[in-house]
Task: inverse folding
């Protein structure tokens, strides 16, 4: 039995994200995620304007009249959310943790997927594989995915993206769409990322809190690594220290961009913002719409 507070949170996410899907993301998802290819539908008599290359020469030769082959797009896709639930997901300086935002993103994309008759599944990971839910259809299935991202208690605290990608490659045998959602604070995972991106349509969604990217001048504070427990006392009133910290985080993000670009993986960088800066009660709607439009223009 899940806590009442969590049930209300899941219901809130369902209502708000469904509204956004219908009002803002309608048509965006289906225009950029295509099916596995074209499937033969029928042969019919040639009509003016039909492509010459679609003529079925065998039927044309038998009947003495030109006939063309007709195809329909095989629309149904399998979409898998590979979500990092390591201890660093509990960070949140703006009223929401990174794990809560991950659930919100999954909700937006999952409701977009089932609206287009696609299947959705979930893989949760930390320093090991925590939970795998095979892709299925239906609203109740999406609600289960949201619940698990929010409520699942991981056994591990660290992050092993390479292992998660290798496991994904074993369970996703047919071509699909994979959303890898993490803060990407992990050891090298470039090789399994490249191998998986050759077979699947991969999109990386990086989720960071604004305080992970730049420090405010708060004087002496203790920074704690959520995954290892390591602690460090720093003086944030030192402007040179803050600038160095900002340069290091910027360099890490640039390296991540180069990695995704070199493996032909699309990247949606998200930064947690205060609630007052959020559109329509849901974070990152603008970021997702911008991604969809950019991807559609490239296609």
Result:
């Amino acid at each position: 039995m899940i806590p009442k507070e969590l049930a209300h949170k899941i219901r809130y996410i369902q209502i708000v994200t469904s509204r956004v899907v219908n009002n803002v993301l309608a048509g965006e998802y289906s225009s950029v995620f295509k099916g596995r290819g074209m499937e033969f539908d029928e042969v019919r008599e040639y009509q003016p304007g039909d492509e010459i290359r679609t003529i079925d020469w065998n039927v044309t030769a038998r009947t003495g009249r030109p006939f063309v082959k007709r195809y329909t797009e095989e629309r149904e896709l399998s979409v898998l959310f590979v979500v990092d639930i390591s201890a660093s997901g509990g960070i949140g300086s703006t009223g929401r943790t990174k794990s809560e935002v991950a659930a919100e993103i999954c909700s937006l994309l999952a409701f977009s997927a089932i609206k287009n008759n696609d299947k959705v599944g979930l893989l949760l990971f930390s320093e090991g594989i925590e939970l795998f839910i095979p892709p299925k259809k239906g609203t109740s299935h999406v609600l289960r995915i949201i619940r698990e991202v929010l409520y699942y208690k991981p056994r591990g605290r660290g992050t092993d993206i390479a292992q998660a990608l290798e496991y994904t490659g074993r369970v996703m045998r047919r071509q699909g769409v994979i959303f890898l959602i993490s803060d990407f604070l992990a050891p090298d995972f470039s090789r399994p990322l490249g191998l998986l991106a050759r077979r699947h349509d991969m999109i990386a969604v990086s989720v960071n809190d604004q305080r992970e990217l730049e420090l405010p001048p708060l004087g002496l504070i203790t920074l704690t690594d959520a995954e290892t427990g390591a602690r460090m006392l720093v003086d944030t009133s030192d402007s040179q220290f803050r600038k160095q910290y900002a340069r290091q985080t910027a360099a890490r993000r640039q390296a991540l961009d180069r990695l995704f670009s070199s493996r032909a993986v699309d990247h949606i960088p998200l930064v947690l913002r205060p609630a007052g800066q959020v559109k329509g009660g849901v974070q990152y709607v603008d970021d997702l719409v911008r991604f969809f439009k950019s991807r559609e223009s490239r296609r």
About this structure: Strands lie at 37-45, 67-74, 78-84, 119-125, 129-136, 177-182, 201-209, 220-224, 231-235, 266-272. The CA atoms of residues 255 and 261 lie 10 Å apart. Residues 38-74 form one domain. The two ends are 45 Å apart (CA to CA).
